[in-house]
Amino acid sequence: MITRINNSNQTNFKSHVITAKEIKELKSAVKKNQAFLYDVDTTNGFMHKNTVRPDGTRDGLYVPFAESVIGAMKKIKTFAKDKIAKFETVDAHKKGDPELQYFTGAPFNSDIHSEKGTLGGTKIPETVFGKPNILIEIEPEKNDVPTVDKIKNVLAKKGIIRLEKNETTPLKYGITGTNNVVENQKALSFFPKLKEAGAKIAVLYGVATDYCVRDAAAACKQFGIKPIIIKDAIKEFGQDSTKIADDEVYKDVAVMTTEEFGTIFGAKNKKIK
User: Which candidate, 112, 89, 90, places its Cα nearest to that of 99?
Assistant: First the structure.
């Protein structure tokens, strides 16, 4: 078990190193269109320090040392683009969203983060694989959750599905202008359809390990999709205040390196035991 928390790209939660059997299962799932890459919130505001608007507004919620994993994310793109389907989440806030109340000001160095349509809410180029084939928008009144057949088609064509959210977990929705957080009916409809479409394994990377990546892994587990995490392509927000080493969400989760992920698509690497 690896439990140490630090900023040197080591795994920072209870987990196990991916096994040869799990690598074989992942290869098979990719071949059968039963696996997808899950990109969690890799936007400018989270990934780059001092993202500021022309009016001086601090447009971001910078994850400390996030730049240190961008190189790994770029490699993931090289390995995976057009070879595996991609599901990505992005924060898409409006002023007055409940989450902004507790992620604003000290110590978060943010006035607002990931407001829809701003630089802070835009994905970094290293994780842009193309235009989403399916976009599930944050507005609850929009009827844009894809059918099982459409999801199957995206999985088969190695396409991209993007889900906008305004809470750390995709399964919750914060009602703008209120303190209310309710169930995100779109996500609660989408994940079972994703499972029904044949998805079995999600390979996760992104930020932050102790918030949105954790909640993405929890969402996958809730609906019977196995999460595997690329450990050198994630970064935690807090060390001293967040004891993620003991987080039950990560119990028994397999972790792999970017280079090991590359072997799924034919890149050469050392033998995995």
Answer: 112
Contacts of 250 (CB under 8 A, 6+ apart): 13, 14, 15, 214, 217, 229, 244
Partnered with residue 58 across adjacent β-strands are 52
Give the alpha-carbon dihedral of 112, 118, 87, 133, to 10 degrees. 150
With the C-alpha atoms ordered 69, 220, 98, 143, is the resulting torsion angle positive or negative?
positive
Burial class (CB in 10 A: 0-12, 13-18, 19+), 220: buried
Residue 109, CB-side half-sphere exposure with 13 Å CA sphere = 14
Whole-model pTM above 0.85? Answer: yes
User: 36 and 86 in contact (C-beta within 8 Å)?
Assistant: yes
Which tokens belong to 76?
């993931």
Q: What are phi and psi of 206, to 5 degrees?
A: 130, -155
> Could you tell me the two tokens for 191?
């994940």
For the segment 206-250, what is each residue's pLDDT rounded down to a tens digit? 999 989 999 999 999 999 999 999 999 999 887 543 344 557 888
